[in-house]
Amino acid sequence: MSRGDVYLSEKESRRVYVMERLMEGVVTVKEASCVLGLSERQIKRLKAGVKERGIAALAHGNRGRKPKHATSKEVKEAIVGFAVGKYHGASYQHMSELMKEHDGIFVSAKTVGRILKEASIPNKHTHKTPRRRRTRNRMSMEGMLVQCDASPHDWLEGRCSKLCLHGAIDDATGKIFGLYFRPNEDLLGYLHVLKQMVEDYGVPRSIYSDGHSIFFSPKGDKLSIEEELKGERVKLTQFGEVLNQLGITHIKARSPQAKGRIERLWETLQSRLIVELRIANICTMEDANDFLCDFKKRFNSRFAVRAEDKEQAFRANPGLESLHKIICIRSHRKASNGSTISYGGSTYQLLDSKGHVVPLKPKSPVCVTRHLDGSLGALYSGDYFKLKAISSDSNKKAIQEENLENKAKPRGKYKPSMDHPWRRSINSTTKDHKNKKRYPLEGELGGIHAPY
Question: Which domain of life is it from (predicted)?
């Protein structure tokens, strides 16, 4: 040990007093070992060291030496640079994983935290004391209960307008079943998530969501007891109708804490996903949705747990063709006199499998289906048909023809037939008038008075 001041810890300072008493012969080796909690052999070794080197022998031998496994200065500087640079906002654990994957730096999360604390770089991912609530055990089987929600956030950190991430997570395993970005929380985002889940895993038994009007009608709580006793029911929403056709039970959560698993997922994704989108230089919503496919697989392999029961509760996928017709947005229209319907400012005709135009009964109901790929279809009398848009000229001509058919023809001047009673009375009157004897007027007699 180099010459100079020797700094001892509190524990080592106690040894100094006992060793001085031992050197003076006041206490024995056995008594010193009992006081310091060391073996007699260690006491003898310390006594020999004090005789040879003085009190410095009581200090730890590695004091002042740099450990062989210590993190190098270059690595520390790189970690600090990453924390304020491309990995800004990542947690200690996530940053450790990213450096291992992209930069070849193998350090633990605790080491990252210690280095950043020494550099006075704060970490926003601190654990708060949770509020005491009654916990609910996970479901025993995968696919038994799926939690569904959306999170509006600045996911691309200003590189694009704010987006809303729709997602679904399994209650039993914590596995992400679907993720999809949309400009706002809407029906289309949830339908994309549902389609991902059914195609990749199957049809779940139940879905757990909040009371958003996308899921439940706002009139659901306004029915009186008398209306409920009469059997009246509020119409299902578009999403509720899709779940009903797939045979999925829809459960309404009364608080955010009730679906805490997906709420916790948003907190994790707002840390991890944002950083990975930044590393991949994602700047558009379309590229972000493409990125989510690989991200889901990596996330599930890292965080998903095993369900208590090895069997799965999913039902079989109904098939791509049936799924295409079920998971869609429906709008109801009525057919015109020209076997056409109007949708989205355009006029359409229904085509059968052979490409022939389907005749429609005037004012008959037609359900227009807008699918997730943007295509259109129609349901009429229980059958599915394709739609064909009519050009503006054809549309105008069809409208004119329809107006001509509907427009009342102007009524001309009525002329009764010759044998009509009116004609007979007029003819007879005229004939009688012609045969009636005419008497001359007084001026025509020339002073001759007619006999009385």
Answer: Bacteria
Nearest to 234 by CA among 211, 202, 207, 267: 211
Q: Quick check: 193 and 167 in contact, CB under 8 A? A: yes
Contact 249, 215 (CB under 8 A): no
Chain position carrying tokens 């709580």:
221
Q: How far apart are CA 296 and CA 199, in angstroms?
A: 15
Partners of 146 in beta bridges: 170, 207
- Residue 341's pLDDT is 92
Residue appearing with tokens 């730890």: 60
- Given a contact cutoff of 8 angstroms between Cβ atoms, the answer to whether 415 and 378 are in contact is no
Average model confidence (pLDDT) for the chain?
A: 83
Share of the chain above pLDDT 90, in %: 45
Domain assignments of the chain as residue spans, ordered by start: 10-58, 73-118, 146-223+230-303, 327-395
Q: How far apart are the first and last CA of the chain?
A: 177
Domain 146-223+230-303, CATH: 3.30.420.10
Residue 390 clears pLDDT 50, i.e. is over it: yes
pLDDT tens profile 20-33: 888 888 888 888 88
Rounded Cα–Cα distance for residues 415 and 105 (Å): 105
Question: Which has the minimum average pLDDT: 42-51, 137-146, 305-314, 425-434?
Answer: 425-434
Tokens matching residue 369:
């289906």
pLDDT the model gives residue 452: 42
**Token digits for 364?**
């008959």
In angstroms, the Cα distances linking 103 to 98, 123, 273, 278 are: 8, 21, 18, 16
The alpha-helical segments, DSSP class H, found in 251-313 are 260-279, 285-303
